[in-house]
Design a protein that fits this description.
Blueprint: H1 3-22, H2 29-36, H3 39-44, H4 48-73, H5 76-85, H6 89-242
Helix pairs in contact: 1-6, 2-6, 4-6
Length: about 240
Amino acid sequence: MTFQWTAVASFLYAEIGVLLLLCIPFVSPLRWKQIFRFQLWATISPYWNKAFLSIIVVLIVLFLDAAREVKKYSATQAVDKNAKVYPSSYDHIHMKLFRSQRNLYISGFSLFLWLVLRRVVSLIMQLAGEMESHNAMKAQVENANQAAKKYMEDNENLKKTIERSKAREGDQAITTENEKLKQEIEQGKKELNRTVEALSKSQAEVSALKKQSEGLTREYDRLIREHEQLQNTTDERVNKKDE
């Protein structure tokens, strides 16, 4: 195997090893993204596209060369002609055909796996970006849920505060009404006391007037008796004079 095909085979084995590493299940795409963000990859990234296209061109050239060799050694006329001229050439031509087919497979699979590797890396980066955005959205949703819960708790506390204030206002209104009723009752008691006092005074005055009236009645009776006595005395005197 010549140097170029040894390099292509080594490149193929390296591609297989890298793909196997990328297919490890317990390494997340976020971890691969962190690995791809190392300083070494940041230094190589400006030349990555050029290197990728250059390797594709080299592999395509090698693949076409191997296909040409396969076509060359697969020609039956050349095999029959060489087999008649040189008896041992048949085995030699089949060895050349085997090598050309091997080189074709190596270059073809190297080209194919190179494209697959590029695609896998891009998909891993996209998946990592989606996972980061998902985690960010999840964090935002959790923050929104926490904020909503906090707002709901604040709303409940505000409702309770409003209900307490309304209850306090109701209690204050009831207390004010009770105070007014107490004041009205006190005023009614005072008015009742004044009325009772006035009634007592009136009753006292009536009693006094009654007593005075009784005294006047007794005095009037006494005067009438005296008047009758005087009149009787006067009548007796007149009768005595007439006799």
